Amino acid sequence: MAQKQSKRRPAAKSSKTATACWSGEVTRHSNALDLDAGVFTWDDPVKIARSLKRSAEVSARRKADPFRSAMSMLTFYINRAGKDLPEARRQVLEQAKDELRKAFGRTAG
User: Fold this and answer.
1) Inter-helix orientation angle 45-58/87-103, to 10°
2) Which residues in the chain come in under a pLDDT of 50?
3) Predicted pLDDT of residue 83
4) Which residues contact 48 (CB under 8 A, 6 or more apart)?
5) What is the DSSP string of 20-85?
6) pTM of the model
């Protein structure tokens, strides 16, 4: 009896540029907001929040209200960085979320 051969293809090699960098493309070329260059690398959470608020308010391409668009972009960045995001950077970005809530007159929680 002949042994059945597998029709399985070998696993494709992942390409760092194709798979791991798609979130960077979204951040750079979002259809919702025109972000200031390097906004997520800034050290001042208030400045980050102001920039995101301004971008969300002037964008004519966003689908949600300005607060949701700005918060979504910030959360997207934090989530996509995942465990590779240094704790100090995560703290700054989490503080930026609080500042964004204040800027839009929302309460945390």
Assistant:
1) 50
2) none
3) 87
4) 39, 40, 42, 74, 92, 93, 96, 99
5) ITHHHHHHHS-SS--PPTTGGG-S-HHHHHHHHHHHHHH-SS-SS-HHHHHHHHHHHHHHHHGGGS
6) 0.70
